[in-house]
Design a protein that fits this description.
Layout: H1 8-18, H2 36-48, H3 52-65, H4 70-82, H5 86-99, H6 106-119
Helix pairs in contact: 2-3, 2-4, 3-4, 4-5, 5-6
Amino acid sequence: MSDSSGNWFGKLFKKVSQQDPGVAPKPIPELDPRDVAAWNNKGVSLDNLSRNEEAIRCHDKALELDPRQAAAWINKALAEDKVSHWREAALSYQQFLALAPVQQYTKQIEYAHKRLRELGG
């Protein structure tokens, strides 16, 4: 996993917030277009900024690169849920549940089951 993955947005935000306001900001590093974790993390960051449609597109990109990425499926479902894309969210929750290892995603699995019951899926 390269430095561009992981929590790249958090690292960037920390760098930008620590810069002297009188100094021109440094250019934003490019996202590795093949880095699944970076696309997923960018989606999470955009979702945290309530830029949910952009977040969904980032999760879609991560899933295009690796359709078995459970984290991208749950994060996509959460973003779809926030913008009332109920059918898409239900499908994403179902994909997540089919792929997620129980020991790693216990709470997310419980939540996905709850949301699917609420959504009627």
